[in-house]
Each structure stands twice: as C-alpha cells, then as structure tokens.
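re: ur question from yesterday

yeah so i grabbed the chain u mentioned. its 574 aa long if i counted rite. heres the sequnce exactly as i have it in my notes:
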Amino acid sequence: MKKVALTLGLATMLACHESPVTVDAPSRPVTALRPVRYGLTNATFLGAWTAPDGRLWVAGQEGVIGQWDGSSAIIETTPTRETLTGIWGPGATPLFASGSGGTLLRRLASGWVNEPVPSAEILLDVWGLDATNAWAVGTGGTILYYDGSVWQQQPVPLPAELWSTWGSSAQSLVAVGQSGVILECCDAGRWAQVTSPTTNGLFDVAGDGSGRVVAVGTAGTIVVRDGGSWRVVPSPTSVNLFAVTSDGPGRFVAVGDGGRVISGDGVNWTLVPVRGALENLRAVSSGGGRRHAAGWYGTVLSDSSGWEGIGSGALLFDVHVPATGTALAVGSGGLAFERVAGRWQRAALPTSNTLYGIAGPLAASRLVVGDSGTILRAIGGGWRREASPFDGLLRSVWWGSDNRQVIVGAGGTVLSWNGSAWDRASTPTSATLRHVHGMRGGDIWAVGDDGTALRLRSGRWQQVSTAVSTTLRGVLVRSSTELWLVGDEGVVLHRVGEQWRTVTPPIPGALRAVREIEGYIYVIGEGGTAWRREGEQWVAVESGLPVLLLAIGGNSADDVVVVGELAAILAGMR
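ran it thru and got these structure tokens back, copy pasting raw so excuse formatting
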C-alpha cells in the first residue's frame, strides 16, 4: 500500500541536435502529430490495492485513482483533488480511499463518493477485514473504525502520526508510525502501545496470515513479530522502504526509494532485479496471483514476468532519431524507450539518474547526459560510463558533424570532448545552461537561465546580451549569421548578423525546443501542440494530446518524433 505525500519539483530541459542544411525549396512539412504511446497520469501514486480477481487500483496526488485490468487502464473520476495515500477494499465495490484533509472516499457501482468521517486529520492508510470491519489511520494519533454503516473514532494512547494498519482479525490489529511507534489492538476494544525495537519511522505493515507480521520504514528498517515481541531483522538495503505486502505464508515483498524491490520470508530478505527506470516506489499490493508496485510519476510495475514497468507518466526529456537504426528517447529516473522495427518499447540504460540530453551521428554512436554528472556513450552495442569533471546536472549535449562534442549544465558548466576525455571549459556565467547547438566548423551557442546566451568563438566562450531575463530553453544555429532562441513566457528571438528581433510567439506560455526540419522551423511547448513557421506566421501542428512537449528529433519530415510529459511519444505526419 502507500503513502507519503510528496512535493515533487520537476526541472524541464530540452534536446539538442545538429540542424540540417537549409533547403531553398522546402518539401511538404509535418502537419500533425500522432500519439504513439503515453501514460495515463504523471501524478505520484501513494497507495495500491489488488483485488482477488487481479485487477489493480492505485491512488495518489490530485485525487487521482487509476484501474488496471491486466490489459488496459483507465483513470476513474473522483470527487476530490486531495492527495490520496491509501486504498483498500473487500472487492471491487465497495473500495475505500483515504487522504489529506480528512478525505475518505467510497467506490460504489455508480462511482466514487465522499464518506463522512469524524476527523479532518490526514488519513494515511485505510485497510479492513471485510465490508463491515475497516480502519483508517493518520496524523494526530487518528484511528477510525467502520462498522459497515458509519466511521467512528477509536481511543488511542498517544498522538503519534500513524502510517499503516493491518490485522488478522478484529482482536489482533497492528498500527505503525513515526519514530518506530507500534500500537496493537484489541484489549477490550482499546489500542495500546507496545515496545518497539526501533526509533526509525515505520511506513507500512502487513502479515502473511500464518502469524508473521512485518513492518518497514526509513533507512531500510525491517521489524518482525512472529508470536513474540517485535525485533529488527537484517535488511539488504539502506534506502527508505515505504510499503510491504504478503500473498501467503513466508511470502513478503517490500518496495522503496530508487525503484528498490526486496522479497523474503519476513526474516531473510534479498534484493530483486527490476527492469527499466527505477522511480521511487511508494506502494505495493498483491492479489489474484499478481503483485504490483506503484510510485512516482504514474509508475506502475508488475511481477508477471519479473518486475518491470507496465505504466509510466514520467517525463521524456529528449529523443534521438538517426537516419537509420534505433531511435531512443530518455527521461526521468533513467526511463528510456527505443524504437525497434517500428515499435516503441522499454529500453534499459545503465543508470537510474534522470537523463536530459541525447545526441550523436548514429544509433551506434551517441551520447546521453543527465543528473549527477552522468555521461553515457554508446559503443560496441552497449553503453560506457564516462568520467565527468563535473558531478552536477548536465542538461544538454551537441555532437556536430565535425565530431565536436559539447555538454552544458548547471553552474555555467561547459564540457568539451578532447578525443579521450572531457575537459571543463571556462565560461563567464554561473547560470544553468539548458541547451547547446552549433554548426559544422562554426560557432556553438548555449542558452539558459536569466536570458543567458553564450557563444563559442575563436576558442573562447563569450556572453552575448539577449535583452531578455526569462529562461531560454532552446537554440537553433542555422548558419554563421542566423539563429533562433525560444524560452519561457513565449519568448522567441531571431538573430540575423548582430541584430536580435523579437518574434511574436504562437502562445504566451513556455516554449521548450526549436528545430529545423527540411527548411521549416518548428517550436514545441505547452498544450501538446507544435508550431511551424511559414513566412511571418505560425501554423499549428496539432496532436490531440494536451501535454507539455519537451523535445523534437529527426531530420526528415518522414521521421519526426516528439516527446514530453506522460512519457508521451508522438510521430510527425506529413
């Protein structure tokens, strides 16, 4: 199950590629974008529950509840925008979902409705035995009991924040929470605090139905009770564990930060391999012979054939579309998709860091850059990690046809490839640089925060005034005398010679990328729409998918790919 209300901050960066030579007579342009794949939501899921028939429900931010039936998924309508942290039910109906602001929802045949409860505390978890015995726990030592008709408060011996509850019967219940607090019930209907072997926070608790109960928490903490007192057992991980479930005697699974999944009998645990991006996981559930985990950015995993993703609403920040070979899109938490034989599928890259930029002349020769100084080079059919002289955020990479390779990132960072290693260049700014682009044998430009624009000329990076203070997200160098810049607040700048011209934008919102394809200038950004420049006008290139678009790849209108939020991948159509 569960659960931690999170404040998620997302940095959005763009792609970088060398532009093709401008043609005097443009061919037929891209006129539409066709969604190829996309996730249902980018909300973080904090609770999960699997029905006896194998159907999965997940709940999370903004009141989002999703349902998977094994082959398709939908978002269900709810009457709240509160963060939902727990979900449980004795069957498909009723289901209960708990959350912030004293929110407790009930799923009936007609849909989700608000349940009246005698508390305004955050209800961090909901769990029950059947349709007439359910409990919700939360902040301020809150425990609510449902008898099949109304929710009522139960007395609690201390005002601790309670994160989870589980029981084998109405006379044998457990609740766990902050600072290792463990409560047990019921002696004459009363909850009592018992001795805990840890002061670490405990986020979830579950039992296997044969007497063994497990709770997990911060720093990989695992505590067990199997007939006697609670004790700490060795953990194979030090990351925070947020959820645990069991689907039978001696069969436990726990999940946590960094996409970590561990399994064991409750006492002995091992790490479990996970394929694909390693987003933080906040919930796990089991039922109907299936186990599922869920977490950040709409991530959902299944163990039907080993643990791997079946859903993601994470961000794809960049895409590389070579003339031949496999196209590759990269994004949050090492998320990657590759196009093989015309179909997009998950790809495994050797990192769990968020990846922001990708470039290269060929599918077998490209660079990927990202968080924590991550630099990956495709070589020999695999990937090689390269040492970076900067261990911060790397946002964009450009690989010119003359084999020059440049990476930019936070703190005014510029890295250049010397043929055997990366050198850090001196720059006149500490602003975050968000995109880099250049031309064969000519100038290279980088743009970023506060209207920053840098130009590599005669071997030196020089700052160029743009007369704007907004964040610049994309740069397109068309020739030695012409370039385009785009950024937040609808900024579009066109430079010819030494003169800047402010161009009326297609929208007042953020523009994330600019690219030239067969003589046409395209920009993308908010609203799921691209725009094509024709004369002094912008022409909309619609997608029908209202998401933030972050990068555009391809050099031919026959093979254009656009990526963005909800892990969306869209194909250009003439």
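noticed a couple things. The longest strand covers residues 123-130. also Residues 5 and 277 are 21 Å apart (CA to CA).
anyway ttyl
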